[in-house]
């Protein structure tokens, strides 16, 4: 059981790294190239990454065969949406209040939110 949990967490982390790359790419495009608000850009990057992460976690990490894909996706996205709120809160605190670089703040936020995302998805979405 513990070994299985560790393996799932490692897979979740690998998927999360791919999601981080997607998140940063779309955030950068929206913020730097399209000149959109940094929090809107952050939300777009996070949402695209969350969808990618759901697909990869369903197939690879949790090997889900749940026929209720839309319910499973909505659960995953709901948890990710709470993660998005936390992500924006952490970016705000680190960047606006502590004056860290925006992208360093985003990296810290992603790390903290990854822990949040794994636990309820393991316990509820992909049980």
TrEMBL record:
<feature type="transmembrane region" description="Helical">
    <location>
        <begin position="107"/>
        <end position="124"/>
    </location>
</feature>
<feature type="transmembrane region" description="Helical">
    <location>
        <begin position="6"/>
        <end position="27"/>
    </location>
</feature>
<keyword id="KW-0472">Membrane</keyword>
<dbReference type="InterPro" id="IPR051401">
    <property type="entry name" value="GtrA_CellWall_Glycosyl"/>
</dbReference>
<feature type="domain" description="GtrA/DPMS transmembrane">
    <location>
        <begin position="11"/>
        <end position="126"/>
    </location>
</feature>
<dbReference type="Pfam" id="PF04138">
    <property type="entry name" value="GtrA_DPMS_TM"/>
</dbReference>
<dbReference type="InterPro" id="IPR007267">
    <property type="entry name" value="GtrA_DPMS_TM"/>
</dbReference>
<dbReference type="GO" id="GO:0000271">
    <property type="term" value="P:polysaccharide biosynthetic process"/>
</dbReference>
<dbReference type="GO" id="GO:0005886">
    <property type="term" value="C:plasma membrane"/>
</dbReference>
<keyword id="KW-1133">Transmembrane helix</keyword>
<comment type="similarity">
    <text>Belongs to the GtrA family.</text>
</comment>
<feature type="transmembrane region" description="Helical">
    <location>
        <begin position="76"/>
        <end position="95"/>
    </location>
</feature>
<keyword id="KW-0812">Transmembrane</keyword>
<protein>
    <submittedName>
        <fullName>Putative membrane protein</fullName>
    </submittedName>
</protein>
């Amino acid at each position: 059981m513990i070994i299985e949990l560790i393996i799932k967490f490692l897979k979740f982390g690998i998927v999360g790294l791919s999601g981080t790359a997607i998140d940063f790419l779309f955030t950068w495009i929206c913020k730097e190239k399209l000149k959109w608000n940094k929090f809107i850009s952050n939300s777009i990057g996070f949402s695209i990454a969350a969808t990618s992460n759901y697909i990869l976690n369903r197939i690879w990490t949790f090997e889900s065969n749940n026929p209720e894909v839309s319910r499973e996706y909505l659960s995953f996205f709901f948890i990710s949406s709470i993660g998005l709120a936390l992500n924006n809160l952490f970016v705000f605190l680190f960047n606006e209040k502590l004056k860290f670089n925006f992208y360093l703040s985003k990296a810290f936020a992603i790390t903290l939110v990854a822990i949040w995302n794994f636990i309820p998805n393991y316990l509820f979405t992909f049980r």
